[in-house]
Structures
1.
Amino acid sequence: MVPLNRQRAMSCIQPTSEMHLGNYYGAVEQWVTMQDTHDCLFGVVDLHAMTMPYLPAHLAENTSRMLTDLIACGIDSAKAKIFVQSLIPEHTELAWILGCKASYGELKRMTQFKEKGEQLEKLGPNDFISLGLLSYPVLQASDILVYRAEVVPVGQDQVQHLELTRNIARRFNRTFGKVFPEPSVLLTETPRIMSLADPDRKMSKSLGGRHYVGLFEEEKSVRQKVMAAVTDSGVLPAGTAMSPGVTNLLEILRASGQAEAAASFVKDFENGVKNYKSLKEAVADSLVELTTRLRANRKNVVGDIKSDVKKMSEAAREIARETIREVRKAVGLPKGLR
Ligand code: ATP
Ligand code: MN
């Protein structure tokens, strides 16, 4: 049982591909510690993963894998509720209602919509920009508000969507009476890990394997990706700021618990010594330790996860149902049939 008076926290991850360092250091690592301080709900949001082109078999496979991976990272069903979004129809029911409190203009301006839209335009004429891609932040607002979450631990890229969620909650409350809290964002110290291959873009699952380091990746490819990370020529005039690639490697080193090694690199850098090779080696060593440990954890994940998650989703749904009851009444809809 969760002790009373704990703040409710909720956050989600898309089963678009495998979990990577950005997801871990920007979000999931913090979810693990929050299980002891908050009333936590964590979801695998399969409906969001449908907003970009995908294969049904992959979606099913990635959803199962993401659940296993979360458990291997330390998400514990005895402490938090883990659910699969599509098992809880209240998410989509509320999304429709909240959609009437979100403006077309603000959705169109979302950075993720623009970025993913550009990705789609490059794919070809069959992969058009769907209504789902435009409206997905409303479904995200619904994921959060259906549980009346107060804190949302996410990476920097989600701050804009959280702002939208707060706006929607405020507008709803103003029109229909106070039903929702305005949830606040909780960031980690490394809320934005960049791609090693292109440090001007954030590390993302959907950009392809070249752009991320998987959390459960084998040693050889982890080392290869880190050693090939884009930095700079190393011949910068004194006083020049660090390039994004080098800054990113340092952030990863700090996030992986090597703050002292990172500080000593910075000192050397300021003194004109730019030893990127040894920085990369330190990052690679640290990441190999992490991924080796997590791979071992994953081997130990046993039991029927699917049936456990069904049960936990049912428990999460109870909360969602209660919210929907109140919402339907507040907005003037008849009592639901469920
Ligand atoms: P996709 O490319 O499919 O959108 P993603 O890598 O962005 O995948 P999400 O499932 O969208 O991953 O996000 C899961 C969580 O990880 C969110 O809280 C998000 O803010 C966080 N996150 C994603 N990428 C990064 C990153 N590069 N640095 C820090 N946090 C991140
Ligand atoms: Mn994302």
2.
Amino acid sequence: VDELKKAAAMAAVEQVPTGSIVGLGTGSTLAYFIRDLGERIHKGSLQIIGVPTSLQARLLAKEYGIPIRDPMDVDHVDITIDGADEVDPAGNVIKGGGGAHVTEKLVAALSERFVIVVDETKLVQTLGEKFPVPVEVIAPALSFALKCLEDLGGQPALRTGAGKIGPVISDLGNPIIDAHFGPIADAGWLDRQINNLPGVVGHGLFIGMAHQVIVARPPEANPRVEIISFERATKR
Ligand code: 5RP
């Protein structure tokens, strides 16, 4: 799977025009992308400014010598490359396995082009099949949000992590709930319902946001890397 992630990331780098402002997504796939971007900058074949979506992306950009700007300091992003946990046939995705979905969604919304890079194991028929919907909430809303997500048909649980006792705290300082729904019949409806809950900072359903999905398949597949384009329904 790592080889597939690398192949998807390499194909994504080809999509980045020199001189552009580039949203730098989060995750293990994106780590390959950011490294390759840095190598090209170092060689002088590419010039970009990166807009990191997480502390991880920021640290990688620093390590590989990519100049960065905070999302707060840009009025637009030309292209954002990001990973995903599940992708459906319409290009809707679940993100947030790395807990960075709030800033990832912000940077995606600022972007002229939002490109998702995945290996084929992330493709599903219906969102929610395998992966929970991550929901970041302010701490005082935890009990309320757990109850509401259950009322919406989910099986929510507070995310706890390795290397720390107790809940995972996001880069933005909030706990994260993972809500398992199983196959989600109407992801657009669920997106709006969760958005409407008081105390929710953001969730990992990205509906109608992706322009393109780059899918890497095993070496024996033809084509090895497929680029699927979508008409973007909404920027935010
Ligand atoms: C982080 C994300 C990641 O993009 C997603 O979890 C995929 O990660 P990976 O490339 O490591 O499989 O949404 O919040």
